[in-house]
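Look over both lines before class:
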Amino acid sequence: MDSIRQNKIARLLQKEIGEIFLKEGKSFTSGGIITVTIIRISPDFSYAKVYVSIFPSSKSEELLPYLNENSRSIRHFLAQRIRFQLRKVPEIAFFHDDSQDYAQRIEDLLD
């Protein structure tokens, strides 16, 4: 169960990482659209799991490793944006959120 503080920090990180992808997107997305869907943050705020949805889903195999390789630079951009809200910026790791693909597969089966 997440605390209220964890939820607030997770929402802040979700908003700011989304803005980073929007403004610095050309260097990270390489032609795909990346949406931050969920962020799970550890109780000590030192580690954050960032779940992203990638469109088109065929690019997810190439973009997800690229995001994890460049997580330090994304964390640097994040630190510049939230330096007054958090004392220490958490380490971030990116994971694929396939809920959209799953919903599309269910919809195709029902049609």
